[in-house]
Structures are given as C-alpha cells and as structure tokens.
Amino acid sequence: MTHDIDKDYLLDTLRACVEVESPVGYYPEAHEWLRGVLAEMGCEMTVDNNATVYVRVSGKSSEKVVCLGAHLDTIGLVVRGINDDGTLRVRQLGGINYHSIEGETCTVHCRDGRAVAGQVICDHHSTHVFDDARSRERTEDTMAISLVADVASAADARALGVTEGAVAGIDPHFERFDNGYVISRHIDDKAAVAVLLDVLRWLRDSGERPAFDTLFAFPIYEEIGRGGSWVPDEVDEYVAVDITLIGPDYAGSDEHSVGVICSDAKGPYDWELTNTLIACAQEACTPGHWNTQVCFHYSTDANAAALHGNDIAAGAFGMACMNSHGRERCHVDALVETERLARAYVMGCGR
C-alpha cells in the first residue's frame, strides 16, 4: 500500500464541498454535488430515508461489513418567525457560537426553492447607536438574520419566499494559503468528506480491494446528534471520520495531525476497534503526527449509532481542527495523515 496522496486533489475537493450548501437538514445541493463526483469515479450512490448517502465497495472477505462515515451537514440556522421590520428570528441547527457568526453573510433556503441572501446581526448591532452593543449577550433572542434586500416588514420578507422553516447556511469564506493552511467555515466535516472521496478514488485507480466489504457513509444530521442513529443491519463496525480537537487537554494535537478518539461526551468507543485504529496510526501515519484523544463537548455519528441501539462496534478518528464551529483552521498535512489512517483501516491493518 502506497501513500502517494495528492494534496491538491484533497484541497480542491475540500473547497468544492465547503462551497456546497448543506446546513443541517438541507441536503438537495450536497446530494446533487456528491452524485456528480461519485459518477465520475464510477461509483453507485444509494440514499436511505434518513438522507444518508452510501457507497458500497466489495472487499476481499465478506466475513463482516465495516463502515466509514463522514457527515455532510454543517451547523446553520432555521427561521422560527419574522419580526415586524422584516428581520428573521432564528433557532440554531447544531452548536452555533453566535459570537463567531455576527456580521456574517448567509443564504436563506426557502421552502419553495428560492434562495435569499442575508446577514446575521445582533438586534443592538452598532456601537454608534446602542450603548450596550459590545456587552449585550448574543443569544437566539438577540440575534437575527437581516435580508440583503429592500425589506421593511414581515410582508416584504414573505414576498421573497421566506417562511418559518426556511434554513440558513453560513457562508464559508474559504481561504487556501501557499504553506498548506486552510481557513474556512465547515471544515467540520467537509475535510473528512474530501478524505473519504480520495480513498474511493485511490481504490479505483490502484485496483486495491478493502479487507472486508466496506460502506462509505455520508450522513446529513450529525450536528444535531442523530446522523448515525440508524445504520444498515449488515454493518459490524462503524468508524466516524470527523474533526479532532486542539487545546489544553489535547497533548500532541496541532493542525498537522490526526487524532484517534478513545472517548467523548457520550462515553468510550469500542476498546478493540479503537486499539485497531491506534495500530493503523502506528503503522501508516508519520511519527509525531498522530495522537489519542478524550474529547469533551463533542461526539460523533459513531457513538450516536451505538447509543441508538445499533449492533455495532464504534470508533472515530480525524484531522485536528482549530477554532471549531467558527472560521476553522486546518493544514493539508492533517488531511493526508487522516487519509493514511483511513486507507490502513480499510485495508485491514492492525487485525
């Protein structure tokens, strides 16, 4: 097994995926984009009733079925009402940090298919107007979307197609730097989507076959905790590929590394499967560029799958990401290390 990973392909795919709108529950654009990418690879795509996309690859053995999942959904907002001045009251979809999105542009996806540009604002938005503009708490009761249009009333907003239940995606503002760094919203978890797509491309181009029958899964509800709530009955192991964390509790983690998650906010991952992933990292990853983590304030589709009663062993790993749920920062090295680990797992390393 070689490690000739195309960094430009990874970053180009990441950018393309990031720029496809997929706030929690809104999947038409992401599915259309993914269908096109997979068709170019000659892969057949199926979709379950929970809007999870699957690609199946036959392995050398049908002794068991393993699944690698990377979620397509991103944090976003849902419209819960329209104020008299035409601004939109919202609820969060996923773990929004309102401070990080104040002033950001967004796209409001209406139920009739129309899309309207917007901007996330605080109701006391200007230091020139409001004495408490700096100190006012940013919550769902003080934040709103101001449509980028001539809107002065609720009727004006509704005339543009906006209703309760419209969903807003925060614009990513992807930036790629010559030294390999990337800053963008939605690196969580579009970076992992790019990695799994490149693993599929590698399997096609190399002629390699996975050790076991393998499903590649792309859920759409991870950010609200139910992306992996149902897993096909045939799956024995579900491994989530998701971002890992950088901070005081995460020794050895930086934007160049991949982390194996041993436990998270919902509890520990499967002992033997996690040890297999650690063995894969030891064999396939660059020394000093992988670590193990116990993650707080965080969980994945894999643990969601286990907690919802699926008969699976759960594991998780992924690229380290700075400033999660804000304008996130990562390095292409972390994507490369994550793909090395993913290839090793798929090929049966550590077993």
Commentary on this structure:
This protein has 351 residues and is of the alpha+beta class. It folds into two domains: 7-74 and 186-346, 3-Layer(aba) Sandwich (Aminopeptidase); 76-170, Peptidase M42, domain 2 (Elongation Factor Tu (Ef-tu), domain 3). It has eight helices and 18 strands. Helix 1 (7-18) crosses helix 5, helix 5 packs across helix 8 and helix 6 (271-284) packs across helix 8.
Care to give the gist of this entry?
This protein has 351 residues and is α+β, with helices and mostly antiparallel strands.
Q: What's the alpha carbon Rg, rounded to whole Å?
A: 21 Å
Strand-and-helix sequence, N→C?
HHEEEEEHEEEHEEEHEEEEHEHEEH
On the 0 to 100 scale, the average pLDDT is 96
N-to-C terminal Cα separation, in Å?
Answer: 16 Å
Q: Please report which band the strand proportion falls in: under 5%, 5-15%, 15-25%, 25-35%, 35-45% or over 45%.
A: 25-35%
CATH topology of the largest domain: Aminopeptidase
Q: What structural category arises from helix and sheet content?
A: alpha+beta
**Name of the CATH superfamily of the largest domain:** Zn peptidases
Output the CATH class name of the largest domain.
Alpha Beta
Quantity of strands, as a count:
18
How many domains, as an integer? 2
Give a quick account of the main beta sheet: strands, pairing sense, barrel closure.
9 strands, mixed
Tally of contiguous helical segments? 8
Helix/strand layout:
Blueprint: H1 7-18, H2 28-41, E1 46-47, E2 53-57, E3 61-69, E4 76-82, E5 88-93, H3 98-101, E6 105-109, E7 115-122, E8 143-147, H4 154-159, E9 167-170, E10 175-176, E11 181-184, H5 187-206, E12 212-218, E13 235-241, E14 258-264, E15 267-268, H6 271-284, E16 290-294, H7 301-307, E17 313-319, E18 328-331, H8 332-346
